[in-house]
Amino acid sequence: AQKVTQAQTEISVVEKEDVTLDCVYETRDTTYYLFWYKQPPSGELVFLIRRNSFDEQNEISGRYSWNFQKSTSSFNFTITASQVVDSAVYFCALKEVYGGFKTIFGAGTRLFVKA
Amino acid sequence: GAVVSQHPSWVICKSGTSVKIECRSLDFQATTMFWYRQFPKQSLMLMATSNEGSKATYEQGVEKDKFLINHASLTLSTLTVTSAHPEDSSFYICSAATGLGDNEQFFGPGTRLTVL
Question: Is B46–A103 a contact, with Cβ atoms under 8 angstroms apart?
């Protein structure tokens, strides 16, 4: 069965600090997709990134970067030079292609960035 | 990206009444729609998957007679919470995809249901 673990429930940092949000997943499928979403207080999910299981290249988008390592089944997310506007709940999610196409979410990590 | 809307954005109802939530894909045809429920400070839990024109597939533990899902067209799915009770108060989020195997899934803004 698929599973996503975000062990960090809450993280608090001071503005301009770097912060890494951890995500570990379990799946039996060889073909799957990994996602990160941001959920601000308004509740609407904001898509950040999608990664397929065959693409282990790390990605950088502005202050955001992602490290995908199949060997450790991890897909970690780093925010550099954090800002107050980064305060939100961040979800890691997994979608199996042959396992019913369901997207399963981790428990989420609540990030507080203090000025 | 594609846009998914939900209506209403929030609703308050009395215990025992039924509430209908609409999910629309505005600029694409959504063959598959998903309904999630999110309790405060918790994750999104998948309730059901629906394909246009067929019955929804419910996740284990979700009562299909209580949460009626209709996906009658390629742009509209509805979730009806029947005989709502305070424990049904939650944030309901739909998402839509062009196909079951599609890796892109677009989320609606959510509907906050409060049952008094």
Answer: yes
Contact A103 B110 (CB under 8 A): no
Q: What is the mean pLDDT of chain A?
A: 93
Question: Which candidate, B44, B40, B42, places its Cα nearest to that of B93?
Answer: B44
Q: Give a three-class secondary structure readout of chain A.
A: CCEEECCCCEEEEECCCCEEECCEEECCCCCEEEEEEEECCCCCCEEEEEEECCCCCCEEECCEEEEEEHHHCEEEEEECCCCHHHCEEEEEEEEECCCCCCEEECCCEEEEEEC
In chain B, what residues touch A100 (CB-CB under 8 Å)?
49
Reduced to 3 states (helix: H, G, I; strand: E, B; else coil), residue B24 is: strand
What integer is the mean pLDDT of B69-98? 94
pLDDT of residue A45: 93
Which chain A residues touch B100 with a CB distance below 8 Å?
Answer: 101
State the Cα angle at B48 between B44 and B54, rounded to 5°.
Answer: 155
